C-alpha cells in the first residue's frame, strides 16, 4: 500500500496546513482500508487568507497581457501531458474510475488548457460605428476579480481545469475548493499549476468540508464570483447566497438524461451508446444516461440485448485492467443508490438485473453496486424523475416518437439527451424540440468536447454554459468604450434630437 499523500492548502504560492491543524482523510473507494491522502480541514480564517492572497494578486494579474497569461496555461497543458499517466493512476485510486476513463479525465484538462490558452490571443470584443462623427465605439471583455471554484469528485481533474483555465486567461484570480473525496487529485493538479510558474496568489487551493470552507467562500464579501458544480441542493444554497451577496454565479447541477431508441434505430449502435452512457463512470457523470426511452416495437429485443451486455460487465477497482465498472465514490452515495432501489421496488418497477450492493471476494472492502436495469418504469415514478448518480438505468416504453420526446422533456432537469434513429426528419425534430443543453444524434448522452458549450436548461443550471467560448461569458463582463476624437462635446442622439 502506498503511503498516504499529505495534502496542504496552497495560498499565496506556499503550501500551508490549516490554521487549526485539523485534517481529514480521503480513501480509496475500491478499498476503504486504504487512506489515499490526508488534507486540511480549513475554516473561515484559512479562507480569509486565501481570499486576501487572491485579491492582492488580482491587482497585477489583471494587467498582464492576456496572451502572456495564456502562456502559463499552455505550460500547464504541457506539464499535464507529461504527468498524464501518474495523475490518471491517482484518479483511479482516489475516485475509483477505470484507468482508461481516468486518462480521459486528464486529457480533458489538457484539451482545455490548449483551447483556453488559445483564447489569450482572441478574447474578441466588437467594434461598431458611433452615431456621431469623430467618435469610436467598441466593447472589451474585463475580468471579474476573485473567483471561488467549488468542484465535485466525479471529474477531479477535468472540472477544476474547465473552471480555472478560462478564469485565469480572462485575468481573474482563483481559489479552488475541491470535493472532499478527491483532495489528492486537486493537490497534484495545483502542483502542476505551480510548476508552470504562475505568480503567487493567482491560483489558490483551500481544502475542507463543503459546509465549512465551501460555505465560507460562498459567503465571503471579497469573493466576486462563484463557479459551482455539484448537487442541486448545494447549488440552491450557493445560488441563493450569491444572490443575497451580489456575486456573479455559475451553477452546474443535476441531470436526468435520457436516450431515446426508435424502432428504426441501429440497435447495436444504440446498445453500445446505452451501456456506455448508463454505466460509464459507474453512472456518476452529470450527463449519465439514467432513462432509456424505448419504442415498443424494439423494446423487448433491445431489453434482451441490454440484459446480456450488462450481465457481462465486471465490477472492480479502477486500476485493475479487467474492470468495466468501478466503485461508487463513498458510503453515503452507495446508500443513496441502494435507497433508490427500495423506492423503485415500492413503486412497482421490476429489477431486471443487479439491484444490490456487491461485496463478494475482492469487492468486500469497496463501495460497489451491481449494474442495474429497472424495467416497467413509468414517467411519474421517482426513479424516472430524480437523479440517482449510480449504475442504474430505467426503461420506459413509448408508442410514438412524439411520446418519446414528451417523456424526455417531462423532467425538472435538462442537461444531456440522445436519440437513436435513422430518420433524418425525426433527428431534426429532436434537435428542435428536446429541452436540453446538449443533444446527441446517434451517440450516447456522454462525451462532451471542450470547445462546445457545456450546461443545461431548467433546474440543471442558471443559464450559463461552461467550456467553449461561452466560458468567457462566465468569467468576464463587457465594458463599452467610447472614444471621442472630435475635440468638442458631442451629445448622444438621445440628448440631441428635437
Ligand atoms: P455531492 O453530494 O454530490 O458530493 P455537493 O453539492 O455536496 O455534491 O458537493 C459539491 C461541492 O460542493 C464539493 O466541493 C462540496 O465540498 C461543496 N459543498 C457542499 N456543501 C457546500 C456548501 N454548503 N457551501 C459551499 N460548498 C459546498
UniProtKB/TrEMBL annotation:
<dbReference type="InterPro" id="IPR016162">
    <property type="entry name" value="Ald_DH_N"/>
</dbReference>
<dbReference type="Pfam" id="PF00171">
    <property type="entry name" value="Aldedh"/>
</dbReference>
<keyword id="KW-0560">Oxidoreductase</keyword>
<dbReference type="InterPro" id="IPR016160">
    <property type="entry name" value="Ald_DH_CS_CYS"/>
</dbReference>
<dbReference type="InterPro" id="IPR016161">
    <property type="entry name" value="Ald_DH/histidinol_DH"/>
</dbReference>
<feature type="domain" description="Aldehyde dehydrogenase">
    <location>
        <begin position="16"/>
        <end position="481"/>
    </location>
</feature>
<dbReference type="InterPro" id="IPR044638">
    <property type="entry name" value="ALDH7A1-like"/>
</dbReference>
<dbReference type="InterPro" id="IPR029510">
    <property type="entry name" value="Ald_DH_CS_GLU"/>
</dbReference>
<protein>
    <recommendedName>
        <fullName>aldehyde dehydrogenase (NAD(+))</fullName>
        <ecNumber>1.2.1.3</ecNumber>
    </recommendedName>
</protein>
<feature type="active site">
    <location>
        <position position="252"/>
    </location>
</feature>
<comment type="subunit">
    <text>Homotetramer.</text>
</comment>
<dbReference type="InterPro" id="IPR015590">
    <property type="entry name" value="Aldehyde_DH_dom"/>
</dbReference>
<comment type="similarity">
    <text>Belongs to the aldehyde dehydrogenase family.</text>
</comment>
<dbReference type="InterPro" id="IPR016163">
    <property type="entry name" value="Ald_DH_C"/>
</dbReference>
<keyword id="KW-0520">NAD</keyword>
<dbReference type="GO" id="GO:0004029">
    <property type="term" value="F:aldehyde dehydrogenase (NAD+) activity"/>
</dbReference>
Amino acid at each position: 500500500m502506498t503511503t498516504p499523500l499529505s495534502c496542504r492548502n496552497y495560498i499565496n504560492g506556499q503550501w500551508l496546513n490549516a490554521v487549526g491543524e485539523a485534517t481529514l482523510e480521503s480513501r480509496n473507494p475500491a478499498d476503504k482500508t486504504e487512506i489515499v491522502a490526508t488534507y486540511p480541514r480549513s475554516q473561515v480564517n484559512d479562507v480569509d487568507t486565501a481570499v486576501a492572497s487572491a485579491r492582492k494578486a488580482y491587482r497585477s494579474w489583471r494587467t498582464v497581457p492576456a496572451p502572456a497569461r495564456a502562456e502559463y496555461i499552455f505550460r500547464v497543458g504541457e506539464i499535464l501531458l507529461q504527468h498524464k499517466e501518474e495523475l490518471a493512476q491517482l484518479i483511479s485510486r482516489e475516485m475509483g474510475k477505470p484507468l482508461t476513463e481516468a486518462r480521459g479525465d486528464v486529457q480533458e484538462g489538457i484539451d482545455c488548457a490548449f483551447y483556453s490558452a488559445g483564447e489569450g490571443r482572441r478574447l474578441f470584443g466588437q467594434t461598431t460605428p458611433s452615431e456621431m462623427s469623430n467618435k469610436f465605439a467598441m466593447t472589451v471583455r474585463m475580468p471579474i476579480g476573485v473567483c471561488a471554484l467549488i468542484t465535485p469528485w466525479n471529474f477531479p481533474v477535468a472540472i477544476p481545469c474547465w473552471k480555472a483555465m478560462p478564469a485565469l486567461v480572462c485575468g481573474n484570480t482563483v481559489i479552488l475548493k475541491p470535493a472532499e473525496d478527491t483532495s489528492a487529485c486537486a493537490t497534484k493538479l495545483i502542483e502542476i499549476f505551480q510548476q508552470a510558474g504562475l505568480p503567487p496568489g493567482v491560483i489558490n487551493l483551500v481544502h475542507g468540508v463543503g459546509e465549512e470552507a465551501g460555505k465560507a467562500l460562498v459567503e465571503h464579501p471579497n469573493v466576486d464570483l462563484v463557479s459551482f458544480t455539484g448537487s442541486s441542493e448545494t447549488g440552491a444554497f450557493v445560488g441563493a447566497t450569491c444572490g443575497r451577496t451580489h456575486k456573479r454565479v455559475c451553477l452546474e447541477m443535476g441531470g436526468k438524461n435520457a436516450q431515446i431508441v426508435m424502432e428504426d434505430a441501429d440497435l447495436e449502435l444504440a446498445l453500445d451508446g446505452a451501456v456506455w452512457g448508463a454505466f460509464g463512470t459507474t453512472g456518476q457523470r452529470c450527463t449519465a444516461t439514467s432513462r432509456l426511452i424505448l419504442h415498443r416495437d424494439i423494446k423487448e429485443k433491445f431489453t434482451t440485448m441490454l440484459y446480456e451486455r450488462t450481465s457481462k460487465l465486471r465490477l472492480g477497482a479502477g486500476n485493475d485492467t479487467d474492470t468495466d465498472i468501478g466503485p461508487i465514490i463513498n458510503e453515503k452515495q452507495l446508500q443513496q443508490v441502494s435507497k433508490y432501489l427500495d423506492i423503485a421496488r415500492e413503486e412497482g418497477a421490476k429489477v431486471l438485473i443487479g439491484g444490490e450492493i456487491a461485496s463478494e471476494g475482492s469487492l468486500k472492502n469497496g463501495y460497489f453496486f451491481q449494474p442495474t436495469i429497472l424495467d416497467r418504469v413509468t414517467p411519474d415514478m421517482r426513479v424516472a424523475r430524480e437523479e440517482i448518480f449510480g449504475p442504474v438505468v430505467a426503461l420506459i416504453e413509448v408508442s410514438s416518437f412524439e411520446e418519446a420526446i414528451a417523456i424526455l422533456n417531462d423532467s425538472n432537469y435538462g442537461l444531456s439527451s440522445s436519440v437513436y434513429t435513422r430518420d433524418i426528419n425525426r433527428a431534426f425534430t429532436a434537435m428542435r424540440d428536446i429541452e436540453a443543453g446538449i443533444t446527441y444524434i446517434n451517440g450516447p448522452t456522454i462525451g462532451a468536447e471542450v470547445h462546445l458549450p457545456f450546461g443545461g436548461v431548467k433546474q440543471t443550471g442558471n443559464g450559463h454554459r461552461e467550456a467553449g467560448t461561452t466560458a468567457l461569458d462566465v468569467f468576464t463582463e463587457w465594458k463599452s468604450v467610447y472614444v471621442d476624437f472630435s475635440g468638442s462635446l458631442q451629445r448622444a442622439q438621445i440628448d440631441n434630437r428635437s
